[in-house]
Records
---
Amino acid sequence: MEFTFLGTSAGTPTRARNVTGLALQHGKPKHWYLIDCGEGTQQQLLKTRYSVMQLQAIFITHVHGDHTFGLPGLLTSASMLGRSEPLFLIAPRPVRSFVEAALGNTDSSLSYELKFIDSEASDFAWEDGACQVTATALSHRVSCRAFAFTETNLERQLLKEKLLADGIEAGPAWGKLQQGLDAVLESGTLLRSDDYTTITRSPRKIVVGGDNDTPELLQETCKDAQVLIHEATYTQEVADRVGTWPQHSSAAQVARFAQSVKLPNLVLTHFSSRYQFNPNAYPHIGEVESEARGIYRGNLYLARDFDSYRLDREMNLVARESS
């Protein structure tokens, strides 16, 4: 599972950082998902290997503009490029109204079917053969969700000794069983994949949070997760000065939660535009990092635009920083 940050700034872009967007890839080599789509996201994509032609689904955490204003442009660009495959838009209901109004009032149409799914439905769950996705309600000024991506269709290992002991020689049936498919021998005997294969590892799971002032709401969702991607808009000192109205998390809040549930990897993003990476600037993003590192003992990362991360099958998170 791989993910790349397309934007890491909260509210407004900066000279170095765009507003929120995240590309997550799993399954077929070029298939990927987009989580949130702030203004300028399609321009950011042009600097990556991700193509709107292979995009499988768009997940929107909430309706705020720094997470949605890029949607109409991205959708119409995909149409102008000749996309014909359906595209899932998984989002709160107001996002559907926003997209329809933008398209309807700009003489725009799509060359493909946009399949809207209400992420706030009580029975929401979505999967495509590569990942199963669930949603968790968060605490923000508007309805907001976190999405958990859990891989499915894990590779299977053949129980060769059992196959041979049952008189089933190597052949096409072995290949089907290893793919998770049942097979029928020429004799008419049905072989069930579950009887002759085993899965030797746990599924990888990544949780992507939207805006949220109560990280503890993710306690159940983060069980068995290897990575949490969560906003850390402010340091605690700034959060206290700003007050409760914005309903964002401080670095200390997220770090305290991640430590309490023993998450192995925490990636912070959605930083206030006041924080800069320039070592000579003030306030510096290092303040956010220092606050989190003072509490959290796992692997901590502060995302920059175009940073990429890979969660391998051994559950190691490998970071590749942007150049």
Note: The longest strand covers residues 131-137.
---
Amino acid sequence: MTSRWLYSLLLWLATPLIRAYLRRRAKKQPAYLEHWDERWARYSGPAPQPYDYWLHAVSVGEMRAAAPLIRALRQRDPTARLLLSCMTPTGRETARELYGDSGDGPGADVVYLPYDRPAAVRRFLARFSPRCGLLLETELWPNLIHGCADAGVPLLLVNARLSAKSAHGYARVRWLLAPALARLGAVLAQGSDDAERLALLGARHVKVCGNLKYDNQADAAVVARGRDWRALFGDRPVLLVASSREGEEALLLDGLDALPARTLLIIVPRHPQRFDDVAALIKARGLPLLRRSGWAATPMPDDVRVLLGDSMGELAAWYACADVAVIGGSILPFGSQNLIEACALGCPVLLGPSTFNFADAAREALAAGAAWQGQDAPALLREAAALLDDPPRRQAMGEAGAGFAERHRGATARVLAVLDRHLSVRR
């Protein structure tokens, strides 16, 4: 109890810093100033009707990962009331785009999860009265977990992952996290390594259920859009840099000459607030640039060397039109972005050395022959060049990726089975 009191006091003292952080982020992304009161669980108007399911996903990647689970919940109970919470404006926008309006039932309501202060947690739970809660991946908020347990709200950590690096950091505050983790209804881990690390951190009722991302089916219309784009590129080789992180674009642009002549490089930054910065980076190198926002899906001019994917919700289309994809976040030590979607769509994958966020998926994709891993940007560009000149090998990697993704599906059904047991006990 003393540890929670100290944590809560430190969080309260940090409130001015949190406010300053939000205002600083708002200079590039003004949406950080919107829905301000929700971040402190201050609400106006009458409370809504209680929610059947509440799911929390911190931002875009986690919100997209939740799609199979949300789809399954809606299919079995189209009238269920669904609340989604997040922490970022892009996460909120993604939730609205994907789940805010359902053709087969009521749309989901979207709010910010308040910062982890005890009073704010109590107000949040009293306002929305969820029947149960699902936290995605690594959202470990001690006061939230204790608050749900005290209020009798079953709370599950689903699609849970914990890298070795994160586990080492969390171990320093095990005195705070262990009591909270022990009060979770269940911890449903992506892999055995994640399960072991979470158990060592203090979690109980740990079960390996697999990764929900394997169950995420790309929108057929978006994939078809990408196939149509590919026809507009003619016979040019196409290399995609998917979900790139800060510093990675420069490393790849500097080695562009290693690629076959006429290669079209498509760069899709991970964060939309960086679109303009990446465009400036490309222009500074004197490379002819076209932005997706200024491209009317007409035949690609031969002089365009780089296409900047400055749009949201089209990553599946980019995979569908690429010959090879470099997965962002893996070149510099960010831990990699999601490689599963590329594999599922049959796109050969190149990974840099940093894959701790997708350690199991990366290891298994490499073993299946769906991916190749290099130690730096020059190595990735050399391998990309070799693949772009080798259609049979690309086809083999693409087929291996599709098979690898198919074999790992089924996490959604396993999560729902555990959730049903907890809800039946509560009844």
Note: The chain has 19 helices and 14 strands.
---
Amino acid sequence: MAIEDLDEVMEIERLSFVSPWTGRLFEETLGSSVSTSVVMEKGGSVVGYVILYAVKPEAHILNIAVHPKHRGKGYGAGLINYVLNHFKLQKVTEFFLEVREGNIGAIRLYRRYGFEKIGKRKKYYTETNEDAVVMRLSLPG
């Protein structure tokens, strides 16, 4: 992800989340030494992205989204595949994320990759009072 991608990323963000990240937050994340931000493109347009912080041996997936008109086509799985393969090579063995309890599709996707529910954060999403499911994937060292 580069600054030039932010208009398309922000559009996906606004279409995907009740409380979207601000452009400033994306810029700060891009400038962080522990952050990795990746876009997936099709035909020169951004169709999805993932942002995570990684400090060996852990990574925390902060944000992942696919444009609504491109969902159900494997792009989310492609982003997860990329993250897992890229960071395995860097000796990251623990992955964490939070997901809305009601986001069954995302939970199903994460479980397909071996993520397990390890907890719940009550009313984590303050705009809707929805709980977050905390998930972890542990890979062999």
Note: Helices lie at 6-16, 23-30, 75-88, 104-112.
